[in-house]
Amino acid sequence: MKKRTDRKIAIAGTAAAAVLLPTVMVGLAQAGIGVPTGRSEASGDSQPIPSFGPPTQQAPPASASPSTSPKPAKLPSVPLNSNPFKTGGGKPSVSDPDTDRRSHGKKPHMPAGSAASKYAKAPDGAAITEVRKVRTRQYDITIASPALGAAVKTRVMVPKGWTSKSTRKWPTVYAYHGGNNTYLSWTRDSNIAEVVGPYDAMVVMPDGGWNGSYTNWWNGGKGGIPEWETFHIAEVIPLMERNFGAGQVRAAIGLSSGGQGAITYAERHPGMFKYAASYSGALNITAPGMPAILTSMNRQAGTAIWGDPIIARANWRAHDATVNVAKLKGIGVYVSCGDGRPGPFDNPNTPPLDGGRVGEQLAGTMNQNFVAAAKREGVPITANLYGPGMHNWKYWKRELVRSWPGIAAAIGARKS
What we know:
By secondary structure, the chain is an alpha/beta fold. It is built from 9 helices and 9 strands. Helix 1 packs across helix 6 (290-297). The protein starts with a helix and ends in a 5-residue tail after the last helix.
């Protein structure tokens, strides 16, 4: 009886925190608590945007960064009904597994009406059912996925010289998009075609769901659909390697929740990736106060992703990049993030509670914790915690350029 009562108290306490904390934090923000008071170091949009060309100096390693102090940072206020980690516009696809609540928790299965496939299947039966060329060297692939119980898309950018009949295996970058976005994000919003295009590397950009968080969802402890980690690791990768010439020398990159995916996948699957890069990633989801913020702002998914932060704490920790940072020893790692103050690409008069400011301040806190943990664990990483900057693609484009030389070297990608 006591255990049952304790569990009810824990659930009620977490639910109350998820509802009340954002309101409390808004009040603190209005009082000026937890909001940067210093004047922005940026001079705003009137300043020319710096070139996206290669930097004259590599970002400093974690051990040399002034941002590696383990001193905890204050969390920002989160307005009610906001989504600070939103990374694009539009809406989810009609087949998005995250928004189809009827499928949540069901046993993985092939989606109804899946077409026959002429391609080699993944070990669990996932199959490529359509390949459509969308532009020179870019293809959209439809995958019938048991892990998701749906047919979802992946965009592939192939290198010069690639043909469907070639037996060559190419260095491959798996690029993960951010929240409230789709598989189109990297080619629509970024400069990845200009940065990686000249190299003999393949780029695979799978759908990661509207709220997927690069995780096999908890679903009240029963698991089941959607299983995003299974889709990306056990379905997309073997399908690309068996049918498209993707090689087994791989890198993972991502922004926002996709940055979390890149780092946690590298931690959870040793030997899978030679390099992992995160741009403004959610790298410390169990930081004090963070679970309540994450579950309250993601009202559609709630605790379905990782579970109740108290009762399912072990599952949260298993998907926390900072908690598991020691598992990154032996691979290359690049992390970058701003601190939420308006930077050189932002309007200097952006209000403190703007989603882009709040999102990057949250990410900045998590990245500071991650870098400090890497230093404590003796894990060599390259960190660029660049100070002023909000949660948007203008910074992630720059960071892709800065991180690419290390990624290319790790996977052996060379200019064609």
